[in-house]
Amino acid sequence: MTSRRTVTRAAVVTHGKAGQIGAGLARLQAVAVEHDVELLFPGDEGEKHGVEGVHDASAADIAVVLGGDGTVLRALALFLGTGVPVIGVNFGRVGFLSSMGRRELEAGMARVFAGEYDVVELPTLDVEHPDGTARAVNDVVVSSASLGRMVELELAVGGEELGRQPCDGLICSTPSGSTAYNLSNGGPVLMWGLEAIALTWVAAHSLHARPLVVPPGADVIIWNRTADVDVAVLVDGHRISTLDPAARAVVRIGAEQSLLATLPEATFVRRYRQSFAP
User: Fold this and answer.
1) CB within 8 A of 31, min separation 6: which ones?
2) What is the pTM of this model?
């Protein structure tokens, strides 16, 4: 974890549907006025809420998200490499990446603006693909580009071949992404603090295909070995490239880290218990 600091300027990132947060923005603005914090609205946030926006919010001390996990991930990607940490107020469903619920907005953000927060450094993924390179905060998914068609993927880790697997796809996940698509497919949850990639097959046509956790320095190479089906490469849910038969993608732990701010008591274990325990 990195040290915290008092907030004088805060960027605001909200749910894609403005109505999802209700009076959340007005409540945040009231707390900001009380604590003499300037709110910055990057990208389309200003137009969305009818306020003056800014092109560059990297001068902010922190980014405040009013939304769900998807909005938090979008903010982490937006502020990647700027040194601006992201803290979430959950206006979504699960809210695993959020530090507080919507009912705690006033009390929680008062503490954050006073500098009472910690910052967790989370690894990202770099992926090389036929159309260039990209960086993922959440996951890289290599999957069939044709709905309902199985593909055959060949996998190598750290320069050693692991063979071919008929399947619907393969998930390469960061710790922050391990509680999303990876978890729903039976993959391992990676606690924050680990620097690793979780590899999880999607609908593998085998009784022996198991998830694998890969350490730093071990490149993951994925070939499309399907004769007549293309494979899509998705970064954080967005398709960025296609693997023709015999083409490959290379995934590794990235050079940048995403910065997730949390209230001191909002630990990984506490969030995990509240979000996923029966």
Assistant:
1) 37, 105, 106, 109, 110, 113
2) 0.92
List of domains in the chain: 9-117+263-276 (3.40.50.10330), 125-255 (2.60.200.30)
Residue pLDDT tens, the chain, 278 long = 555 678 999 999 999 888 889 999 999 999 999 999 999 999 889 888 888 888 888 999 999 999 999 999 999 999 999 999 999 999 998 889 999 999 999 999 999 999 999 999 999 999 999 999 999 999 999 999 998 899 999 999 999 999 999 999 999 999 999 999 999 999 999 999 999 999 999 999 998 899 999 999 999 999 999 999 999 999 999 999 999 999 999 999 999 999 999 999 999 999 999 888 76
Active site residue 69: yes
Among residues 36, 61, 69, 219, the one annotated as catalytic is: 69
